[in-house]
Amino acid sequence: MSAKKDRVNIAVARELAEELANTAESMGFTQFALANQILSVGLTLIKEGFSVQQIKDIATFYKVMTELETVPVPGRLLDKMVVEMSKLNKEVALGVWCEAGKMLAGYIKAVFGTLENAAYFAKYLANVVPARRFEIKAEGGEFVLDTIGVGYSMESVEVTASAVKCMLEDLGYEIADLVTAPGILRVKARRR
Fold this sequence. Notes:
By secondary structure, the protein is of the alpha+beta class. Helix content is about 55%, strand content about 15%.
């Protein structure tokens, strides 16, 4: 025997109710079941301190990371791999990271249209990159990246600089200033 859950009606905008009905049907759910799942997950996240906008942004960030086939790798391991690759062939290491930058530029063009539209993800990237400071500003045709603690070695900074440079060039920017030092990467660029 299954006990039926008590039901209550809640009001939503007509368009939202229609979208819920269509989505539930396409997923093989009842509207009741889908609404319960959505509300349960959403309310749990809100109770954990997330705002509605943060929940939406996290879902978008997750989508971007999976579409880019991002694999989480501990920062120290990645740094050691970069150092060893650079010892074997520095030009290959820089080239591999340049290609990654170009791939990211292609994704930005396809999904966001412009770097400015994608720049709001910087606050989420700051939580997953091994850096103490990670700030990106892209507005009015100007781009600024300011990082401290990016990698543990100079080689990590150099390959990251290569990726950023190639990404920006593919997006139609010209590098105005690029500063690298152990753990520090600062880039300023202007749209051509």
